[in-house]
Amino acid sequence: PAEPRGPIPLAGDARPGAFVRTTAGERPPGTCIRWSDVRPTLAGIHGNEALCERIWRSVDVLGNRFVWWIALAF
Predict the structure, then answer these.
(1) Between the CA of residue 62 and those of 1, 18, 27, what are the distances in Å?
(2) What distance in Å separates the CA atoms of residue 52 and residue 44, rounded to the nearest whole number?
(3) Are 64 and 30 in contact (CB under 8 A)?
(4) Mean pLDDT score across all residues of the chain
(5) In the 8-state DSSP scheme, what is residue 2?
(6) How far apart are CA 57 and CA 51, in angstroms?
(7) How big is the chain by its Cα radius of gyration, in Å?
(8) Over the stretch 32-67, which tens digit does the pLDDT of each residue have?
């Protein structure tokens, strides 16, 4: 019996950006919600905003890891 195969790529498919997105402004890898999207929704930050951003990013990456863990577990 013949093995099922996917479509054969064409020579024109081998171009930059054909398989990997190159659009600017998208979420960085490992991010669920960007800090730049969350910051306007927060009330005034009284203190070190850079510290708040660092903590946000460290917690946000956990959500991304959880989603990947679930996706790979099944």
Answers:
(1) 45, 30, 15
(2) 12
(3) yes
(4) 82
(5) P
(6) 10
(7) 20
(8) 888 988 899 988 888 899 999 999 999 999 998 998
